[in-house]
Write a structure and sequence with these properties.
single chain; 224 residues; alpha+beta; 4-stranded antiparallel β-sheet; 12% strand
């Protein structure tokens, strides 16, 4: 292992981060098994509180199960649409493609086993939700590794969590964290879809950095 990375290697990392996208449109091209293995290995190298490694990965290959999960999305998406008060915003939401469950060649549910290493997990006691945060780090590793492979991932969060967990037959104490659609995208867009469609722009980073207390601005350019 190298202790340092060259400027070229550093730029590749930052380029992958900037180029990551939430993918909804898939080409249908099969994902090679060796690429999937590398993506899962990247996930498994994520940091985790107390090294508990709380994640599991459920490949959803059953057409019937995918159909049931898609039905959950349709119902939940309809409920979310009705919560939007502005007519123009509601129309924009209706026009957004927010999943690729049936189109993506690979569906993976990422779970968090909240009982793993119980009753004592080093570092978790004061902040119990760090096992969920750790699982999210594994998902981010998957996303970046997939992007490096030219493969796209879409996170489907518009699901009834409890009903989807029952469909996946998750045991007590195991929670669904992410339902991912994986495959080669039709394209990687230059900007996030929600930004392109006018849902929201990226926030100004300088307005998100504070010093010592909430709301006290910190100018990174002036730091010593």
């Amino acid at each position: 292992m190298h202790d340092t990375f060259s400027k070229e290697e550093q730029e590749v990392i930052y380029r992958v981060i900037r180029a990551r996208r939430d993918i909804r449109h898939f080409s249908g091209k099969p994902v090679p098994k060796d690429a999937l293995k590398r993506i899962l290995e990247a996930a498994h190298f994520a940091p985790s509180v107390g090294f508990m490694q709380p994640w599991n990965f459920i490949f959803v290959n059953s057409y019937a199960l995918r159909r049931s999960i898609k039905d959950q999305f349709i119902k939940t998406n309809r409920e979310q649409l009705e919560k939007i008060p502005e007519a123009q915003r509601k129309k924009l939401y209706r026009d957004l493609k927010l999943e690729g469950i049936m189109e993506a060649p690979v569906n993976v549910a990422v779970t968090c086993d909240r009982n793993r290493d119980a009753p004592f997990v080093l570092g978790r006691g004061p902040m119990p939700e760090t096992d969920l945060f750790s699982t999210c780090l594994a998902i981010q590793n998957m996303w970046l590794a997939a992007r490096a492979e030219g493969i796209g991932i879409g996170w489907v969060s518009i699901l009834d969590q409890e009903k989807t967990e029952k469909l996946l037959k998750l045991p007590e104490g195991v929670r669904l964290v992410a339902y991912l659609c994986i495959g080669y995208p039709v394209e990687f867009r230059p900007r996030p879809m929600l930004e392109e469609k006018g849902w929201k722009n990226r926030l100004d980073l300088s307005k998100l950095i504070y010093e010592n207390e909430w709301g006290n601005p910190l100018d990174l350019e002036q730091m010593e």
